[in-house]
Write a structure and sequence with these properties.
15% strand, 463 residues, 3 domains, five-stranded antiparallel β-sheet, 58% helix, five-stranded mixed β-sheet
Length: 463
């Protein structure tokens, strides 16, 4: 995966680095040789400047120049400079290839062989390019010539080329490995994104964020992918939760509807077979069937309401409502049904924003739940305005709830340990919670065994 792209990028890094290193090597070699050439030329100039004095010192005005030539060469030559002496008869005195000073007959030019002459010509050309030029000076009886030692210059040239070549090869290898590392690091986010997409395509939606510190386009791609992956994983988790809730919801709804439906169908079968002839018994059967039918109707209505509250895209009426007035209507409606009464307390007006019908349904369900589970004590409904929100607290003095009951109080169809003692569907608190959360509020529960239960609704305060 991305092998060809990695290879191309690595080669590109290597080529660029190689070109730069080649330029550096050439410039470095030229610089070293230029320094050597400058030092050699200074030595040549110094030798030429000293030559007349040395010849005169060795008796050049009394002796033939060829006779004192070897001594002149010994005195003037340096490590990088060679000297030869030519008298007026063109007899040459110079150091040969065997490092011995020789006298070459008149008009016989030195010869080192065709191959040596070729390479010496190359060396002369390079030396001239670098600024090394032979020099001559007229002395008693002839001429003294000074020029660069080509053998030494060749050694320096070869050493510089080999050194720079070795350094260049080493740096090229380093550049190759460095280019591969840089390429791998640069492509790492892209590779991880591709791997994650492949996992997604295979059905693996586990979240594995792409970690990168890059601040370039690939870094932005990784961050965008992480954000998209979060949304995808969250969406699939939500879908899985919804499917799980839906399966549980269908199972619970089927269980709750099966009982009254079984009763109704059983009575219908009895009546159909004519097994009941007593008019009073028939009347009781019909009353029971009607009661169970109404129970099913109420359950179906609650299921429809709960489904509508669960639909986020469903429209709702947004209005400014006086929560105290709305809670007062609920207390007035349920007051006659509470054996020990409903006590209502309001602390001024409490304006909130939401769907008044849904909020009233939530308060009604909580009050109805308190009347069913705490019939032996008064129920307090208190409305108050606080900083940033308004609250409705419904508190009873019933048996309270255990920790397990509190954990499942808002689950659909959950009715606690007293489910066989109290009539209900187990949907009231679930509907209340959905309605309050739909209004961007919160519904909290505080209870303890033997200390009663308090439900607290908090809604954003209207401006």
């Amino acid at each position: 995966m991305f092998a060809s792209l990695r290879i191309r990028l690595t080669i590109a890094y290597f080529v660029v680095a190689g070109l730069l290193l080649a330029v550096v090597a050439v410039v470095g070699t030229v610089f070293i040789l230029s320094m050597y050439a400058r030092a050699t030329q200074d030595n040549i100039n110094a030798v030429i400047a000293q030559a007349p004095a040395i010849v005169k010192l060795l008796g050049g005005d009394r002796k033939p120049l060829v006779q004192i030539g070897p001594q002149v060469i010994e005195r003037l030559e340096r490590s990088s400079v060679r000297v030869n002496v030519i008298d007026n008869n063109e007899t040459r005195v110079q150091r040969g290839e065997d490092n011995r000073i020789k006298v070459i007959p008149e008009r016989k030019p030195p010869s080192y062989g065709r191959r040596n002459d070729f390479w010496r010509g190359i060396l002369y050309g390079i030396g001239g390019f670098l600024g090394m030029h032979p020099a001559s000076v007229r002395v008693e009886g002839g001429v003294v010539n000074a020029f660069a030692d080509l053998d030494r210059f060749r050694t320096v040239l070869v050493s510089a080329i080999l050194t720079m070549s070795a350094a260049g090869i080493g740096m090229a290898l380093i550049a190759l490995f460095l280019g591969r590392y840089i390429t791998n690091q640069a492509l790492k986010p892209l590779i991880e994104v591709t791997q994650s997409l492949r996992r997604f395509s295979q059905g693996d939606f586990s979240l594995r964020p792409v970690v990168t510190n890059q601040r370039n386009e690939l870094g932005e791609l990784a961050m965008a992918f992480n954000a998209a992956a979060d949304q995808v994983v969250a969406a699939f988790d939500e879908r899985e939760r919804n499917e799980r809730h839906m399966r549980q919801f269908i199972a619970d709804a089927g269980h709750e509807l099966r009982t009254p439906l079984t009763v109704v169908m059983g009575y219908i079968d009895v009546l159909d077979r004519g097994a009941v002839t007593d008019r009073e018994l028939t009347k009781n059967i019909l009353a029971t069937m009607g009661q169970e039918s109404r129970r099913m109707r109420a359950l179906i209505d609650k299921l429809i309401l709960l489904a509508r509250l669960d639909r986020k895209e469903a429209q709702e009426t947004i209005e400014t409502i006086d929560l105290a007035e709305l809670a007062g209507r609920v207390v007035e409606k349920y007051g006659p049904l509470a054996p020990c009464g409903l006590r209502f307390e309001r602390n001024g007006s409490a304006w909130a924003v939401g769907d008044s019908q849904q909020i009233e349904e939530a308060i009604s369900n909580i009050v109805d739940n308190a009347i069913k589970y705490a019939p032996n004590g008064p129920i307090d409904v208190r409305v108050e305005a606080e900083d940033g929100h308004v609250a409705v607290a419904i508190k009873d003095r019933g048996p309270g709830m255990t920790a397990e009951e509190q954990a499942h109080a808002f689950d659909r169809f959950y009715r606690g340990e007293r489910r066989f003692e109290v009539e209900g569907s187990g949907l009231g608190l679930a509907i209340a919670k959905s309605a309050i959360e739909r209004a961007r509020g919160t519904l909290r529960l505080v209870s303890a065994p033997g200390e009663g239960t308090e439900f607290r609704i908090e809604l954003p305060r209207a401006d």
